[in-house]
Specification:
With 308 residues, the chain is of the alpha/beta class. It has 13 helices and eight strands. Helix 6 crosses helix 13 and helix 10 packs across helix 13.
Length: 308
């Protein structure tokens, strides 16, 4: 058994952190209880008000380092540069893994043709018996990793495993001015590296705590998307998407009804209510950007609400 284990690749887990001490402790606790214990864990603090040295000190196998340049992508880069594992497993501080997370990744990477693995991200609930409206909405519409990987060519960095040598060939994540997970995934695909969806490689992410937090998330995303619309045709397409978005909640009813991610009429109705609010909000923001609004301020702090 020991000889079989030593033939497996070593795994380094990299966690960017900013003012999320409670969530970080939960993440580290889950990693320590997992079926496959990581060979090393590197927490990269990105300028927290309180550096989590006491939290990390409670886990002897955790290394804490600091990245003063702002942005989770830059924090991940520093962690990757100092990691020694053959596999780099990225997870966010406010997430926690399924107990089988790294065991599933280890098993998948027995295939020498696998370059990058992106797992499923599910919503964790404060009270599973009484979902908030935002929890119901995000359960259906957020973190659709299978869709992102198969249709859009990228994977969220909250549940991403990549061979170390492949990461070095692709290059580092970008900073806050771009959606670093999408940009990195597209760059990986352009260089010929396939991202495989791994539905059993599961990580849990809490829903945003409020509608305001969800809106801020979309403000950041729209700022990234708008930066890519430099041509006249790009602006025309942007306006057309904004108008289509305002009408989109009605056809989404069928998806909400058929979704297996929530149960009960109340949760489905709550999800649709939030969907309407968010898509109208996005339409308004898109039109404001089209008319010259400056949204760069939304990039300043990458987890303003996640840290609450």
């Amino acid at each position: 058994m020991e000889n079989s284990r030593t033939q497996q690749a070593t795994i380094s887990v990299i966690i960017p952190h900013l003012n999320q001490g409670k969530q970080l402790r939960r993440c580290l606790t889950a990693l320590g209880a997992g079926h496959r214990i990581p060979d090393e864990v590197i927490v990269v603090d990105n300028g927290s008000h309180t550096v989590p040295d006491e939290i990390c000190g409670d886990f002897a196998w955790v290394t804490l380092i600091s990245q003063p340049l702002r942005g989770p992508g830059l924090a991940r880069n520093l962690g990757a540069a100092q990691a020694t594992g053959e596999l780099l497993a990225f997870i966010d501080a406010d997430c926690f893994p399924e107990l089988t997370w790294l065991a599933e990744a280890e098993n998948s990477f027995r295939d020498p043709g696998l370059h990058i693995s992106g797992g499923d991200v599910k919503i964790s609930y404060v009270d599973p018996h009484h979902l908030t409206a935002v929890e119901a909405y995000e359960s259906i519409f957020s973190y659709r990793m299978g869709h992102y990987i198969k249709r859009q060519g990228f994977c969220g960095t909250g549940n991403l495993v990549v061979r170390r040598d492949i990461f070095e060939r692709i290059g580092p994540f970008k900073g806050l001015t771009v959606a670093e997970d999408r940009e990195w995934g597209h760059r990986a695909c352009f260089k010929g590296y396939h991202i495989r969806y791994a539905p059993k490689q599961v990580v849990y992410h809490p829903a945003r705590p409020s509608l305001d937090a969800l809106q801020l998330k979309w403000d950041r995303q729209l700022t990234h998307d708008w930066a890519e619309c430099s041509s006249n045709w790009g602006r025309i397409t942007w306006a057309m998407k904004a108008m289509a978005l305002a009408l989109s909640p009605l056809p989404a009813v069928a998806r909400i009804i058929c979704s297996s991610r929530v149960t009960g009429l109340r949760n489905r109705a709550s999800a649709w209510f939030v969907l309407v609010r968010i898509r109208l909000f996005r339409t308004k923001r898109m039109m404001l950007l089209l008319n010259g609004a400056d949204a760069s301020r939304h990039l300043e702090q990458w987890n303003k609400f996640d840290a609450l």
